[in-house]
Design a protein that fits this description.
- The protein has two domains: about 55 residues, no CATH class; about 230 residues, Vaccinia Virus protein VP39 (Rossmann fold, 3-Layer(aba) Sandwich), CATH 3.40.50.
- The two termini are about 20 Å apart.
- It has about 290 residues and is of the alpha/beta class.
- The protein is built from twelve helices and 13 strands.
- An eight-stranded mixed β-sheet has the order 5-4-3-9-10-13-11-12, sandwiched between helices.
- The protein is about 35% helix and about 20% strand.
Length: about 290
């Protein structure tokens, strides 16, 4: 049963499969995604892009949950504003653009320069005209900040230690940054995000400090936590913002949101944050 669940959620990582796909995909060529929630979309192959993405098997559990709740469950209107913080090459932005808010707008933030170029390419290949690309880090300040490029584009971060990882090295660059509050409630005060996805490799420690006005707009959040400090930042948002947290890793409501890892009932992992006043609706959808 455990193996079948891993297979269903595309958690099987095989060197043999990677080797076979390396023969099938040519560097720089464009391919149609054959499976999953991005089936029919176009992606340009590079060796740094893993086979899960090219096959459409990237994070199926997250897409399955969001499809069930935001789309089929009607929690999000199709003309809403969505926010993709840490857009990477654009898989979430593409899904949001096509199936979640096709009549709305997606604001995609990506700070790493090379990855941002891939993000631009992905959106252009798929004619995702309702995705607004922002070459910015989301942090606790506006202006220039230090950003750390890891050995792989999935680990680059505002967090130097996380970007360095086990290899103990990351290249430091300066990037432009904004806060979520300044971006959505500054000069563009007409923008109010209804959904915020955040996966920034520990950088939520900074970004979540300056999203108080966003929280007041009562959006849903999908946040992946990577460090104990990021757990605490999410816990603070949940407690101070009057949110409930549902953990996608084990499909359970977080019963001790004031606690963090290693408390099994605390804040850690991949979390869907729901305003408390909407928890009953989400609970019914998940029944």
């Amino acid at each position: 049963m455990k193996f079948l669940n891993r297979l269903r959620n595309a958690e099987i990582n095989s060197a043999v499969i990677r080797a076979l796909l390396h023969r099938c995909y040519a560097e720089g060529e464009i391919y149609t995604v054959p499976f999953g929630f991005l089936r029919g979309c176009k992606l340009r192959y590079h060796e740094r892009i893993n086979y899960h993405a090219m096959l459409g098997l990237w994070e199926p559990e997250n897409f399955r949950f969001l499809t069930r709740t935001l789309v089929e469950g009607g929690l999000l209107r199709q003309d809403s504003i969505a926010c993709d913080v840490g857009a990477n090459i654009g898989l979430f932005s593409l899904w949001l653009s096509r199936w979640c808010v096709p009549n709305g707008h997606v604001y995609a933030f990506e700070a790493a320069p090379d990855t941002f170029e891939d993000l631009e390419d992905t959106m252009a290949l798929n004619n995702a005209t309702n995705v607004h690309l922002e070459p910015l880090a989301c942090s606790d300040r506006c202006g220039s900040v230090e950003f750390f490029l890891g050995f792989h584009h999935h680990v680059s971060s505002l967090n130097a230690a996380w970007a360095a990882g086990e290899r103990g090295q990351a290249r430091k660059i300066a990037v432009d940054s904004t806060t979520l509050d300044d971006f959505f409630f500054g000069p563009r005060s007409d923008l109010q995000p209804s959904f915020i996805k955040m996966d920034i490799e520990g950088g939520g420690v900074f970004a979540l400090q300056k999203c108080e006005r966003c929280v007041q707009a009562r959006p849903y959040f999908l946040i992946e936590s990577h460090t104990p400090e990021e757990d605490r930042a999410i816990s603070n948002l949940v407690m101070q913002g009057d949110y409930a947290a549902f953990r996608l890793n084990n499909h359970k409501w977080v019963s001790a949101p004031q606690a963090v890892h290693p408390d099994p009932a605390g804040i850690w992992g991949t979390l869907f944050l729901c305003p408390q006043e909407k928890k009953a609706v989400l609970t019914e959808l998940l029944a």
